[in-house]
Write a structure and sequence with these properties.
0% strand; Gfo/Idh/MocA family oxidoreductase; mainly alpha; disordered C terminus; 118 residues
Length: 118
């Protein structure tokens, strides 16, 4: 499929973030800075810090898998743990890509109640 055309600028700072949020609610589009991409950024930072400390190269996927194992071990809610366990089949990186909005669901419902990656 063709890449969607870039959305117009929503501005900066809190006002821009609020406009982006409202746009996401109205259109069902994923806003820039959505959680799945942020987790990948955090994994890269974690890998860089650990690499600096150990002097070794680290694969981002290794950092993700370690964090995933910790999340599974530490999660207290059974429903959340069950959802996380579903990631095992797809792999953490794939699960973090996030699912597309369910077919036939658009606008506020798709964003306000997004499906959890799994």
């Amino acid at each position: 499929p063709a890449e969607p055309a870039p959305a117009g600028s929503v501005g900066v700072e809190i006002a821009g973030s609020l406009r982006a949020f409202v746009r996401a609610l109205r259109t069902g589009e994923r806003p820039h800075g959505e959680v799945h991409g942020n987790v990948m950024s955090l994994a890269m930072v974690e890998a860089a810090i650990e690499s600096k400390g150990t002097g070794r190269r680290l694969a981002i996927d290794d950092v993700l898998e370690r964090a995933y194992a910790t999340a599974l071990a530490d999660e207290r809610r059974d429903d959340v743990r069950a959802r996380l366990e579903q990631w095992r089949e797809r792999g953490v990186r794939e699960a973090l890509q996030g699912p597309p909005a369910p077919a036939g669901v658009a606008g506020a419902a798709a964003v306000a109640r997004p499906a959890v990656a799994g």
